């Protein structure tokens, strides 16, 4: 199995097929570098709770506005496009394209010490939003604008998982 092959199943989609198919947005768990300090755990606002709950199962979900039918990321209380508050969460494909990336030779945050050099990217998702994530795994330091990526998950101390991206083969 390639390191970016999705994992997990979707019981509704798989019902009656006898096959285990990947759930949308599911991806592998990616361990931090050996000896790296514990990563800072992002705070979970009430609006973001469904996003973080899905991350515990390594599923990428995005907030959607039911009024204007647009994806929203990061989760918030109102749609930034129409200010509507009729919001829900939907599965995301878990793939994207690097829009911009930067190699960090020195940690920008003390919790990233021991991980340098590392690459931070803005990733365009097909749902129409941009995700900021670390590029990890084989070839990460060679990441470039236009590269295809897939979501993986780095475990956080509280049981949530932080989305990271891996370069497509």
Give a quick summary of the entry.
The chain has two helices and eight strands, in the order ααββββββββ. It has helices at residues 11-14, 49-56; strands at residues 61-65, 70-72, 87-91, 95-104, 118-124, 130-136, 148-155, 161-167.
Using only C-alpha atoms, the radius of gyration works out to 16 Å
The largest β sheet comes out as: 5 strands, mixed, barrel
Assigned CATH architecture: Beta Barrel
The ordered H/E elements are HHEEEEEEEE
Number of helices: 2
Fold-level CATH name = OB fold (Dihydrolipoamide Acetyltransferase, E2P)
Counted up, domains total 1
CATH hierarchy, class? Mainly Beta
Strand content: 25-35%
Strands, count: 8
Helix content: under 10%
What is the CA-CA span between the terminal residues?
12 Å
User: Looking across the biggest beta sheet, what order are the strands in?
Assistant: 4-5-6-8-7
| Oligomeric organization of the protein chains | single chain
Uncertain runs are: 1-21
Report on this model:
Mean pLDDT is 86; it is low at 1-21. This protein starts with 10 loop residues before the first helix and ends with a strand. Strand 5 and strand 6 form a beta hairpin. The chain contains two helices and eight strands; from the N terminus they run ααββββββββ. It is 7% helix and 31% strand. It has 169 residues and is mainly beta. The longest helix is centred in the N-terminal third of the chain and has 8 residues, at 49-56. The chain has a single domain (21-33, 43-167), classed as OB fold (Dihydrolipoamide Acetyltransferase, E2P) (Beta Barrel), CATH 2.40.50.
């Amino acid at each position: 199995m390639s390191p970016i092959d999705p994992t997990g199943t979707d019981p509704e989609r798989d019902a009656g097929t006898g096959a285990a198919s990947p759930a949308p947005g599911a991806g592998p768990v990616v361990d931090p570098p050996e000896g790296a300090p514990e990563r800072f755990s992002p705070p979970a606002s009430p609006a973001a709770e469904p996003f973080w709950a899905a991350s515990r199962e390594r599923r990428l979900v995005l907030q959607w506005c039911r009024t204007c039918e647009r994806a929203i990321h990061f989760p918030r209380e109102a749609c930034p496009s129409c200010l509507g508050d009729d919001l829900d969460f939907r599965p995301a494909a878990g793939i994207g394209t690097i829009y911009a990336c930067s190699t960090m030779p020195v940690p920008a945050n003390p919790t990233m010490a021991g991980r340098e050099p590392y690459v931070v990217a803005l990733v365009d998702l097909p749902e129409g939003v941009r995700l900021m994530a670390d590029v990890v795994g084989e070839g990460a330091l060679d990441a470039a604008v236009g590269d295809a990526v897939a979501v993986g998950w780095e475990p956080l101390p509280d049981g949530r998982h932080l989305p990271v991206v891996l370069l497509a083969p």
